[in-house]
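Table 4 source record.
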Amino acid sequence: MKIAVLSPVAWRTPPEHYGPWEQMASNLTEGLIRMGYDVTLFATGNSVTSGKLDAVIPKGYEENKSTDAKVAECLHISNLMEKADNFDLIHNHFDFLPLTYSRLIDTPIITTIHGFSSPDIVPVYEKYNSESYYVSISQADRREELKYLATVYNGINVADFTFNDRPEDFLLFFGRIHPDKGTAAAIEIARRSNRRLIISGIIQDAVYFKERIEPFLNENIVFTGHAGSEVRNQLLGKAYALLHPINFNEPFGLSVAEAMMCGTPVIAFNRGSMPELVKSGETGYIVNSVDEAVEAVNQVTYLNRASCRDWSVSQFSCERMVGEYLKCYAHVLSNNY
């Protein structure tokens, strides 16, 4: 079976900083290759893979601001579609735009829907509902208008995250600095809990950072900026708990799965996929307010960090994700040949 994996071209695959869709495209590609499959990754030219790389865009448009994003996307997607006959299956991680080619080629396309940026994009998915194969990344992130082949949780590389049963006393916020992610709420939770807070992530909303985050930074509320893979592993493992007070219905939270894989419990707001990721009372707490989050901080000491690790490995490993996608591939190919 020859598989083409279509990654976005906002960032490198895998990303050096931020880029969850690119990260999942990479994890899947490498997992399939380890199992002996013939995989070609369609991504930016500076991407890294142990398989074949096909690229027409040198660097991601978020990394090279002189690049026109729409032009890059059109060149990138058409490059694969013009070679579609070379593959038995195309796995699309690029959102809705590649679907517009699906009736023009014979090769079946599986599309992992990583989230809906706006209700305005749903009509495109609806148009190709009858002949497309959609996979959701959580049960919470499904639209009733669409038909789904399966739900497959994002998978991460277990070896990249070290279990730590001797945490330090700080709380951690790990993610984009943006109102959606609730960085300001994390600060409030930490202050009311009398705990030190480390904030790690890229600043995606500069005004929000300047007005809601920066004024509160001190020796107890520390902003570290972006964390590379080694620092990320250390922060997630050493944290007493990860705070995830999101303000939107998040399709999946990679940092949530990663923290638990290090043994760190998660205190998350009850939005989107969080009840699917966190076993409340066992691997963290699902809460509905800052007040409840403050109470949960005091309860974290009663949780078993090994149970957090075991749960995350069992549900969110790369191996499990690849296995679930191979079942999807078998279903699609049996329907098409």
